[in-house]
Amino acid sequence: MWLGDDEKDDKLWQILSGLSDDAKVICFANTKRRIDSFQKTFWGKGFDSVALHGDKPQKDRDRDLEKFTKGECWLMFATDVVFATPNSHL
């Protein structure tokens, strides 16, 4: 079964909206454009989230990662490439 991006977004929204308040989620996607789109869409639906990808400056990635790890934000969207970079702190 193949799903389009809109159907995938809807399914992800269903999953995330059903999670408990203490959930911590990292959602991976294959492009920075998709990651930025997720963050904007889910922020618009009331989800505080961070987006990590290789084109963000390291200081912004560090800030967003810290926000996630400290529990200030429970939802992170990231490309798998961001965790394969030499400057990754995970």
From TrEMBL:
Hydrolase in keyword set: yes
Single GO molecular function: helicase activity
SUPFAM superfamilies per UniProt = P-loop containing nucleoside triphosphate hydrolases
Domain annotation Helicase C-terminal: ranges: 8-81
Keyword tags: ATP-binding, Helicase, Hydrolase, Nucleotide-binding
Which InterPro entries does the record cross-reference, listed alphabetically? Helicase_C-like (IPR001650), P-loop_NTPase (IPR027417)
* Highest taxon in the source lineage: Eukaryota
Keyword Transferase on entry: no
Recorded protein name is Putative ATP-dependent RNA helicase ddx17
What is the protein's species of origin?
Answer: Symbiodinium microadriaticum
